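Incident log, structure service

09:12 report received: a user says their structure output differs between two submissions of the same chain.
09:20 pulled the input from the user's history:
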Amino acid sequence: MRPRIMLKNYLKIAIRSLFRHKMYSLINVFGLAAGICVSTLILMFVVHEHSFDRFHARHCDIHRVLGKVKMGDNEFQMNSFAASFGPAVAEGTPQVADFVRILPSYRSVAMENPARQEEAVLEKNVMFADPSFFSVFTFPLAEGNADALREPFKMVVSERAALKYFGNTDVIGKTLRYEGKHLLQITGVAQDPPSNSSLDFDFVISNATYPRLSEANRNNWEAGAGNFNVYLLLNPGTSKALVERSINGLNPLKEGQNLKPQYVLESLDDMHLGGAFTDSGNSKLIPIFAAAAMAILLLALFNYMSLTTARATQRAREVGVRKVVGATRAGLGGQFYMESALVCALAFGLGLLMVVYLSTPFYALLGLKIDTAFVVSPFFLSFLAGLLALTALAAGSYPAFVLSGFAPLEVIKGRFTGNIGGVGVRRAFTVVQFAVSMALVVGSLIVREQLTFMQRKELGLNKEQVLSIPVGPSMAANYKPFRNALRQQAGVTNAAFANVGLFKGYNMFFVPNKITKKDIALAQMVVDEQFVNTLGLQWKTPPTAEGGRRNQALLNELAVTELGIKGDPLGQPIISGVAVDGIVKNFDFSDVQHGTKAMMLSVAGDTTNMLRMPGASRGVMYVRMDARADMAANVKAIGRLFKKYDLETPFEYYFLDDAFNDTFQNEMRLSGMFSAFTALAIFIACMGLFGLITFTTETRTKEIGIRKVLGASAAGIVGMLSREFVVLVLISGVIAMPAACYFMSHWLQDFAYRISVPVWAPFLTIGAMLLLTLLTVGFKAIQAAMINPAASLKND
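09:34 re-ran on a clean worker, output below:
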């Protein structure tokens, strides 16, 4: 009973203390809540990223097959294999319990409900797979079964896809039309893949369907074209190295191959972060975000501890009396821990409420998606419980140690001094808070400067006012009339074709250097004769009149250098049967982070055949719009023109400058996060500063009164009180600026085109922090300086 009575007493005292000092209680609760909210949002993202694919029942035993190929000094990885590869591996490797082949649809495909008179919808989450897909991976079926995926023209859809096309999930036996031609029967409905799944799907079509869709698909299937990702389910406890040796010893896999890859296995657990093909870029952001989350939480805790101990003078007599009547230091420590736990519980509740309301805009800023199912999962809830316990423990430790350590005799005799309350430690807290805040300000400024630099960089092509229209096989029959109609459309100055999208990817092959004979990676795009003019590329050496045949090979300047071509490059061979017809100046076609790459533009007289080839992407029509014309009206007119020549595929478009901006999405995320971190860190630091100046003015009230009696002016007193804090801010700047500049300089090294660390950034940051400090401190200092000295000295 006694411990229960003690806890009840501690709680009662904690509640009374909370209501007795309402302003400071509100500052404590809201400051800690803000820190908990932001750190929880960030840690939710970090934990979510690390949880990818671990919901599968046998995630530890699932591996993806990769092939490593060495070309010259470069090593490349391939993740796509022939349809026969998976069965051959499973048959020749006894450690493999099962396998699944997956052919992702790298381009959007048109789906429509034939029972509705509605336009087809372009879908991205479409894949072809074996029936074992639902036994190897843990994607539960809500309706039907996956065995029917052994037959052609069968598929399993997600619940969200069923609701989208039929309004309910009772869709077994119903059909959808694929690419305007083929009816696919639904044999199962799968639960929606969770947000922490690397494999996201809405339509899983049987692999038996693929070769029956077109003659080209059938040829690919039979000829062994590398289209399929292969996942292996190993027997429990099997060594990955043993399986790799077994696969590389299978001779049938190497027969008839020009490339001789070294096969390796990649664990499903490692795919999302640091995977060869599926790393979303978040692997670089996660350590930064995790460090920022802990820094924000620590700043909030420092702020709480600083404000709590700053009010120590008001609790000193209470502690002294309690010790005189028999209270132990452990008992007093327990009481102050209870007060901290109460504040932490209130702050945690308020912080989680803020998380509920801020999570949607916060993750929209980052372009992220986290399921509610993950948030309420036992794993994440236990993580939150641990965070609450850690926060309460850390928040209560220092205040309990300081407040319970007051000497009762000194306190009751009135000889209590502020030094007992740990002024030095609180000053250290303030230095740390402002050092972190300044470092974040400098980081935010540098990230924004680098982002602006990349956005404004001269690319070597004109990306403005360019409409990009993906076109596919359904346009092949009418491609030329559509292209000609586009060029004659009002508001259009030119139109051109490319087989891949700029800033979306590129094809690549290897050519030996003329001098060293080492293989050089050469990016390639197949384009038409208007591509150079439409995109605004600049000629270094235009084709000669004699070289004006319809099919041409154009190199950029970097390709000429890397291939070791000397003298006049025109007419010199690139590969057998292909010679240089012209040279264009370097232009960025992938991303500015990694710089310009060697490129060959294959100018084809007739690009129609590119639309008929099965592959990863559609071709793209680039339409140069007249800047003076009505953009919205022109896009609608082009949409109507598209539907005139392609009745099967919905009109889809994007602007080229948007595609370019998407290439540094991670940097934009980082910039947004830095801005949010900076604002919150400054807010918390100012609250800590306010607590420290409050403590200072309270403990020096009589000193201030005496100074005024002796003739000190209000301005002099304000300067005296502010001087200490200005020094603290300057110390923070001396600590933070070199560290921030060093780390940001290291971060900039990842960019081929980068700025130097701006010299003005540290000085601007320190100046802004000094101004903010003077405004925060000045309010309380002026208030203290204006107090009547008679009132402050009346007790003496």
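09:41 both user submissions now match this output. Likely a transient worker issue. Closing.
09:42 reviewer note: The two ends are 46 Å apart (CA to CA). Residues 98 and 233 are 5 Å apart (CA to CA).
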